[in-house]
Design a protein that fits this description.
The protein is of the alpha/beta class. Helices cover 40% and strands 12% of the residues. It contains 12 helices and 10 strands.
Length: 371
Amino acid sequence: MPMPWPPASIPNEFGIFTLSLGNATHHNLQPRLEAAAKAGYQWIDLFDECWAAYLEEHGLPGTQLWEPTPDNLRVARELGGLIKSLGMRIACTQPLRAIEGIKDPVERRASLDLVAKRFPFMRAFDTDLVFLCANIRTDSGVTSDLRTVARDLAELGDMAKAYADADGGPPLRIGYEGLSWATRNTWSSTWEVVRMANRANVGLVVDAFNVLAVEFADPYHPAGHGRIYATAEESTDVLCSSLAALVATVPGEKIFFFQVGDAERVNPDTFKPPTDPAVPPLLPWSRGHRLFPFEEERGGYMPVHLVAAAVLATGYKGPVSLEVFNNSLNVPGADVAEVHARRGMTGLRKLAEAIPRVPAFWQRGGRQGRL
């Protein structure tokens, strides 16, 4: 059910992506988790690289992170238990990449089976959600055809249901996220796949950064304002038109996970697009310059609160989880996890305060008042 607006408070609990607490190269996972618990997070979004490094810390090969060996599953249960002992839960594991739309039947079967390899680990972690990012491949071996991609997601949903039916455990869910540099790079293009897949356990993952990176921002704009359109008003109008459609068409229960993050307004005179055609133009900005919500003092400028308000207005009840990549996470230092955990929680609290003040722009006449 849609949320009555404005809400008296935000009921959603807070989460954080493990990489947003520090890169696994320099930071072991347990201290990062302890920093998250100390800062007050309730949910952990487990990144593949962090899980692989955790296995290596326990003397197991990180290259075989999803092989369901007794040792790997034992360590997975230990990690799930550690996180519960800190008062948190694992919300999901991610990311799965280049899964859907593969034309060759043998390659397609192997790709879908990669997803199924995670199911035993989801039980060990005591989590029910895994999600895949929209395919970024552009070669002739893949297609973005709606029926083909929807068929793949439907089959993944059926595989997850069969696994849960067989072991008698809770349902397992498949989430689908549009990346801002993928062929399906908007919430609407990924939603049409989820809708056509027509499975109760297949849903949408919405990432505020990826929404804004396509529908609001242009880090390379020569004027240096970082937007697609010259004025903030026009940029906001276009964004809100899209978000109003999200509220009108996506039931809250079909949004399986919501991630938030801002990004730095960069100087287009010095921050240039990649020259390698194999590197998507938005990738360097995404990987090195994301920020937590409301970090204007660090260059943040995107209206994360508008995306968050729209998502919550659908009736979404899951975690609001930070997903931030930044060069500051790739340096050593004992305080990196604690500093980023604290910064992230500050941003989430500011976001929770800002959301009820957003006018219901998705309703007729709702654009009245400042956004």
